[in-house]
């Protein structure tokens, strides 16, 4: 490939290619001698390390044209026009860091060269270079970035004190702001037909939050049916670990549906934890190795998530006053709603991770392997639920609505909904809170609150099905 590119390259590009050829030849010789390179990733790391140490020498006619030189190459040479770049402190002169085991005091005592002599040497060459020049341009960077601190060299400050014929100019690129054109998709007849099909099949709470987060994502996934590419995982992805934890807990709790849990039941679950986590990792993380490296750490984290959760359940049940009944796990729920302005019913569906009853209180629980705080579930005004921070609240409230419709729930019994966050397990069951007073939280989900909530959800659905409102990309998405 290098030989092919060489035929169409100029002189500078040929020098680049020669350096690449040198690096590859060196790698090849090392591989033949030691045979350490076993995969492409190792080869890439060695190549990057080698290529970083390569440098190009600029060669040209020494008596004409522009001469690119280092400071030390200018010794005993005079120029009419001089351009010195990167005259920043730490570059000219260089920093005081020296790779040596000899302390500074020892060097001074024995007359060994230190950074002081180096600074004096560069100071001499700098002022010697300017001695007979007619036009001098000294450039330094004023921005704090990876190339320096943005402080001009002490040599420049010294020069300013010595002379009064210096002109200082600040040069910066002109920034032209370009208007950002957001993508916009009109709801034509095909889109409306697809939306109606979606209403018949069912819209999930995650689809609604996806629409609120970015309508273009909803359009691609639900209208065009474009799913994300399934990459071959070398490292366990976050969603894979979440699936493993969910499936493990479902397997553990499924036999106890409709029963009251006892401490001995949790102890039996604890004996199966590692085996089940290993099984579901092998199921969802196919052809992956979880015995070493980062994957092993992620496996241990998932296993610890389940173990800590069961320990917390066991601690809850050790109190004889607590009665915990498992009603359902991974329960599929659905309900059709009528929205004024839409000619057909819209089906909402979802899968609730867990429904239980603790001391007579029915709880709708959603598992999250990510970090969730109680503030994410604190809603004082349902009109604000479009905001990103309330999207988790939308999910659990919709699950609560679906459950009440599915079971014809009587609101004489208390009902709560919330999230168990495995990264915030110490906080326990994070419940929906409708009170502004943190000392007296209001966690009860009543029929009136659900009706107010569904009023806002219907407004969102009406907007989604409105032909006059296009799918518009959201600018400045938070990440």
Describe the overall structure.
With 479 residues, the protein is α+β, with helices and mostly antiparallel strands. It folds into 4 domains: 51 residues; 92 residues, Double Stranded RNA Binding Domain (2-Layer Sandwich); 204 residues, no CATH class; 88 residues, no CATH class. The protein is 42% helix and 12% strand. It contains 14 helices and 10 strands. The strands form 3 sheets. The chain has a 6-stranded mixed β-sheet with strand order 4-5-6-7-8-9, with helices on both faces. Strands 1-2 form a two-stranded parallel sheet. Strands 3-10 form a two-stranded antiparallel sheet. Helix 2 packs across helix 3. It is elongated and about 95 Å long. The chain starts with a helix and ends in a 7-residue tail after the last strand.
Topology at a glance:
Blueprint: H1 2-6, H2 11-34, H3 40-52, E1 81-84, H4 104-109, H5 115-130, E2 135-138, H6 154-162, E3 184-185, H7 189-201, H8 205-213, H9 215-223, H10 238-253, E4 259-260, H11 263-284, H12 293-317, E5 324-337, E6 346-358, E7 361-368, H13 391-407, E8 415-421, E9 429-431, H14 447-464, E10 471-472
Parallel strand pairs: 1-2, 7-8
Antiparallel strand pairs: 3-10, 4-5, 5-6, 6-7, 8-9
Pfam families: PDDEXK_1
Protein name: PD-(D/E)XK nuclease family protein
InterPro entries: P-loop_NTPase, PDDEXK-like_dom_sf, PDDEXK_AddAB-type, Restrct_endonuc-II-like
